[in-house]
Each structure stands twice: as structure tokens, then as C-alpha cells.
Protein 1
Amino acid sequence: MSKLKLGLPKGSLQESTFELFKRAGMKIYVGSRSYFPICDDDELEIMLVRSQEMARYVQDGLFDAGLTGYDWILETEAKVREVCELRYAKTGFRPVRWVVAVPKDSPIRSVKDLKGKMVATELVTVVKKYLAAKGVKATVEFSWGATEAKAGSLVDAIVELTETGSSLAANNLRIVDEVISSTTRFIANAKSWKDDWKRQKIENIAILLQGALAAEGMVGLKMNLKEQDLEQIMKILPALKTPTVSRLTIPGWIAIEVIIEERAVKKIIPQLKRSGAEGIIEYPLNKLIY
């Protein structure tokens, strides 16, 4: 049997990645100390590695494909095939940001003020290019961890990853500028991409993962109504596309089906009921393929 070697991120993205694959139809199981998950798709051979290392491993062919952040693709300067963007993170669906941060009482107000200063970050290559593009000469050192604690004591500024900025604020830090915005990317090895079977397998996974993300926050609605009430019902429904309409065996009655945002349902269903809709059914979506 042909196998696709797939690298998945270990750490903060692990659980949200497993949940995404589950909604895409691929169940993954792993022990607390294992780096080799079991998947119900026999064509996948999975290993967990840190996102920071993923792009290089995919580039070197140790994995046929993998999931990692756009930030780490830039940082490692890996030559990989980007299959698709997967907009999800450990706590939500917004991009994560690498930002320049300083203590709230720091005199540093702009990137230009970093001239001659010391900056700590895990994203050294990207930050050096960022400063060079701004025409700022500063010393950039690699941070092995606890980066937020170093600002103002060991270094003048840090470049740190944030989703909401709440952790930085809790540590009395102020954001000066954004270096880059990053989302998760599905990447492939160049040689593997040229293999017909592997490419199709990678593309199939991409379609399913994108479908699972597209379905997030969406639900389906089915209902029956008199044909004469259709125009009024159509004014209520914020349809993703034109609703599917089919005739019932009862003369003058039709059924419609539509996909809408889940947050809108609580307002729409009572309106639909008052406008003549009956037998209203709401159902969850696992995947939404455009």
C-alpha cells in the first residue's frame, strides 16, 4: 500500500489540528508521550514535530507534506510547495502576529528608535530582514524562551508571537509595530508533489481540511412552506447561495434548504415560523466544499 508521510505540529497547535482533521473525516489518536499518532486513514503515516522544524523536514523529503505556520516557512527559508492556507490557530481562526513589544514605560515609540538597541526573538531571520527593510541597525539575538520577561531587563525590545495581545499586556508590555501576520499553511515536498499518487492524496486532504474550516460556524436549515410564502421567506434568509427549492407531493407546498451562519439562526427561525415555514430543521455541518 502506498503511504504519504505527513508531519503534524506538536505543541500549541496539536489539539486544534487533530480536531480539524476529525471534522474533515480523518480521526487521529496519540498517546501522551508518543510522537507517532494512529490515523483511521491507512494511507497516512503521521509524525508529530515542532512547527519550527516542519518546513525544513518537508523540504528535505523526510515528510511528503506537513502543516506549519507561514512564519516558520519564512524563518527557515525552506523551499517547499504551498498547497493551501488553513486559517486556524490554537484559540481561534484569526491570524497570529509577530509584534515588536517594549515595556510600557520604555522611551521606544517606533521601529526607528530600535537603532543600536538589543532585540530578542525566536524569529531571528525574519526580524533581521524586517529591520533591514526599515533601515534600522540593531542587534538581534535568539531567545530560548521566556522572551516576555527579558524586555526592559535583558534586552531593549522583543519580537514575540501573539493572537490577542492579552499576554503582552499582562506582562506590562506595549506593542510598537507588527512584523508579520501568519496563518497555518499546508505544504508539500517538491519531489512528492511531482508524484501523481502523492499529489492527488495531498490535494484530497487539502480539499477536506478547507471544507472543514469553511463549515465552521455554519449550519443547514430545511423547512416546508406554501409556495405563495416563498417570496416572503426569501427576504428573511441570508443565503450563502440561492436556496435549494424542491416541490412536495402536497399541491402548493415546497421544501427549501439553505446554509447560513449559526449565530443568525436564533433570530431567523422565529421569523421563518411567523412567515409560514413549518417543519424547520437545523443541522450541523462537518464540511462545506465550494
Note: The chain has ten helices and 16 strands.
Protein 2
Amino acid sequence: MAGNRKAKKERKTAKENRSRDHAPAARGEVSSAADAGALSNKEYLSILKDFHVELVQLQEWVKHAGAKVCIVFEGRDGAGKGGTIKAITERVSPRVFRVVALPAPTEREKSQMYLQRYVTHLPAAGEIVIFDRSWYNRAGVERVMGFATDEQVKGFLAIVPLVEKAIVESGVILLKYWLEVSPEEQTRRLEARVKDGRKIWKLSPMDLKSYSRWFEYSRARDDMFAATDTSWAPWYVARSDDKKRARLNIIRHILDRIPHESVPREKVKLPKRQKQGDYRDPNYPFKFIPELH
């Protein structure tokens, strides 16, 4: 018992220090670069490293406790969802942190209940599922681009809070994030995709059509929030004009919203390697790749 109290106290102290040292604004706020000054890459990577350590601790706790976590990321095109998800998952196990980014529905899936293909991806015990866009496609792109009727959208917005309540009551920790980018920054990012051969794949014909419909997406977002920002599954908004700050603020928020503790584990020590004995390297013509650098 004493050991558990000590561990909890250490965790609380660490969290307070992290919040004080790394938070660019008061808790609950998301600062912009203009508010807090530019964040250097060195500072960003230093804070991110600390967060990665705690994300691993979160991962181990989720496995140990059999917790179920579902994180939904939505936002405008170019808002930085993919980069945020990559920052969260780059140092953890894909067997625990599972990213779901569904393609357009098949003809069979179109005939199903709308939420059916999403429900199958919800987490089991010991899993954290991250949706890179989610069932909220119906309230956003499907509405704006005319893939869903007004009646379908209205029905979706009416039933989703009840579905999410059932998800939460089943023991799933559900977090929903909306990344909000300014029109000027969105333009800059999408233009950069056009000019960069490494990013051109991110710019689909649908993105180009969506770009011109800024205020239609604004109306869709407003209606979605009004209908689905509930006490059991609230929306959290992150301003993402500054990608680095947005990523750090979101990771900090996730860590603070999911109660977790360090899981005791034995100290890792490498065993002695066996002796060579009678083994000899073979005289085999291995096909090594060219070493260009």
C-alpha cells in the first residue's frame, strides 16, 4: 500500500511539473505561436520525448488494466490530423495503439446500417484505437459534398449521441478532437502539397472540391457540435495553425484525460550471449545492397 501511495505521489508530481514546464498556456487553453512565441525544433523534440515516455507508460497501463480507449480525430483538410496521429504513435506498439483510417465504403458497406463498419473497429480490452476521421464523415464531407441527404444527416446527428453513450457505458474511454485551422494556413498547406512531390498524394480531387466550400464546412461543423457535444462524449478543439504546439497540446490532453499509473515491471538486464563453440561464418555469397552513403 505504501508503495502504491508513493507511486501515485510521484506521478502527480511529474504531471504537475510537466504541465508547468511544458504548457504554453493555462490548462484548458491552446496557445498560438503569436501568443507564446515560436517553438524551436529542439524544444519541440525535447517535450515530445518526455510525452513519448509517458505514452509508453499509458500503453503498459492499458494492457495491464484491460482498459479500452477510443480517440477520434476530425477537422478540416490540412488541419494536421495525420501529423498529430503520427506524433502520438511513432514510439508505441501498433498492437496496442491501432490507427483506423477507413477508405470509401464498398457497395456492400453502403447497404449496411451506417455506423456498422465503424463499430467493428472499436477497442477491445488492452487497446487504444485512433480514428483518422470517423463516423463523423456523415456530418462533414458526406453532407457538404452531397453524398448524404439532409434526412440522412439529420437522422445521424439524432442517433449518434445515443450510440456514443452506449459506447461510453460499455467501459470505453472516448475522446473526440477537432483540429481547427485558419483559412490562410489551410491555403498555405494545400499549396505546399501541390509543390512538394512528397506530399502530392495527400491532395485528392475531393480535397480540391472541399477547399472552395469553407463556410459550408463551417455550418456542418457548427451543427455537428450542437448535436453531439455531450457531457459523456464532449468535443475538444485544438487550434492547429502551429502544428508543433497543437501536437503537444493534444498529447498532453490525452495523457491528462486518461487516468493511468506506472505498471511495475522487472528491471531489464541482457543475458550473457552464448559462446561461439564450433560455429564458423559460412563462405556464402551474400547479396549485400550497394552502400551509396
Note: The radius of gyration is 23 Å.
